[in-house]
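Go through this chain.

——
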Amino acid sequence: MEFEATPTIAAASGRGNADAQSADRVRQARAAVDGVEDRVVEAAERARVALTHRRSYHVLLPGMAVDVPAGQLGALRRLPGVRAVHGVETLHISTVDGGPAQRVRRCGRGGATGQRAADRRSEGLAA
């Protein structure tokens, strides 16, 4: 799930060097993302959305990986602080040279909507 928050990388210096001011801005941005996460989790509890936290993200995409029953996806999307919900599924594919199968996770729109894989568009693959 993606939060309505600014990623921490946006607060870093664009020059590639870390000074005290840049480090302070990154800490503040991280705290802001943490605050949104806390509020989303609290809202999920109030709305009785049964989510299981897997991992938090701050740097490039503010959000968290969660497991949630398919019947509660709509409620998850409506929680305050949630910008989007992106589904993930695991695929098994072979390499081009016929080598051993690779495990790949599909990330993108439609992954949690129940659409068939062939019907999906605008997706990426993450290894």
